[in-house]
Design goal:
Blueprint: H1 7-28, H2 33-47, H3 55-91, H4 96-110, H5 114-145, H6 152-175, H7 185-203, H8 210-241, H9 248-287
Helix pairs in contact: 1-2, 1-5, 2-3, 2-7, 3-4, 3-5, 3-8, 6-7, 6-9, 7-8, 8-9
């Protein structure tokens, strides 16, 4: 991949995927919200590095991206919950009636307004892509008048990566190795932030490799799955709380369902714990990056 050396090129690299998901949304009504969420987050990440000078365009692009992300993430969460229920239906026959009831509840919550929500999701993506295109063009024009220093972007990306590596190391050590869904929330959020900063540094020719990003992706997959499973547990507990005291058999079935889902959470946590030593070592090496370039020092 070519090394990106200007704000305009970096913005353009994020604009193309954003335009693609906005165009596909017109045809498929955000059929792949995970792809749309990724494109929006990558666009948002670039804006942290911008030197300023196009404040009005930046403010508008930030607002449009936030709105689009909020809307599409709701769709992503619903899809993730539906996939989990389908997966559990295939592997846990004992909880079949419970899961089918939850799936029916999810569909009833969405059906009356599905078309309207999806139209709004698509409109939000279109607006975000237009605002980001305007920002990209603004920086192209600004670079013609006053070209920024060539090392500006990589210096900012390096500083951002170092800062986020320090924060993630602290959060992972605080979370420990004993399973607790609540303690994993902060490492998950900080890991995602570090991953976006690291990708920027890689695109700018820094020390980050594709293997580093894949390690982040494996860990994020486990943490995201734990989050989705916890949401499903909350839905089951909500259904359990609505039962009458006499419905002992149904209560017991829901208890068994929760236990089965918690077992899956612990398996995902074990994957996360296996990845932790390598991630901590990587963060430690990035904390010592030379501030000026984000590249390894000679010798």
């Amino acid at each position: 991949m070519a090394v990106l050396t200007s704000c305009h090129k970096l913005l353009q690299s994020r604009l193309s995927p954003l335009k693609r998901v906005a165009t596909r949304a017109l045809r498929a009504a955000v059929a792949r919200p995970d792809v749309a969420v990724n494109a929006i987050r990558r666009a948002q990440a670039v804006m942290v590095l911008l030197p300023g000078g196009c404040d009005k365009a930046e403010k508008k692009a930030k607002a449009r991206l936030r709105t689009a992300l909020r809307r599409v993430r709701k769709r992503q969460d619903r899809d993730a919950l539906d996939r989990l229920i389908r997966d559990l239906l295939e592997s846990d026959r004992q909880a079949k009636q419970t899961l089918l009831a939850l799936r029916s509840d999810e569909a009833e919550d969405e059906d009356p307004t599905r078309a309207r929500y999806r139209r709004k999701d698509t409109a939000a993506l279109q607006a975000a892509a237009r605002a980001f295109a305007t920002l990209t063009e603004a920086y192209r024009e600004a670079a013609r008048k006053t070209p920024p220093p060539p090392e500006l972007l990589i210096e900012r990306a390096t500083a951002l990566t170092k800062k986020r590596a320090v924060a993630l190391t602290r959060a992972m050590l605080d979370a420990g190795s004993v399973y607790s869904a609540d303690r994993l929330r902060l490492p998950r959020r900080l890991l995602r932030k570090l991953r976006t900063a690291a990708e920027l540094l890689k695109d700018l020719g820094g020390i980050v490799t594709a293997a580093n990003l894949r390690a982040f992706d494996r860990t994020l997959l486990a943490l995201d799955r734990i989050r989705d499973l916890q949401r499903l547990i909350n839905r089951v507990r909500k259904a359990q709380g609505a039962l009458s005291p006499a419905a002992l058999h149904a209560w017991h079935e829901l208890d068994l369902t929760i236990i089965a889902i918690e077992h899956r959470c612990r398996r995902q946590h074990a994957r996360y714990v296996r990845e932790c030593p390598a991630l901590l070592t990587l963060c430690e090496s990035w904390e010592a990056l030379p501030a000026a370039t984000g590249r390894p020092q000679a010798g």
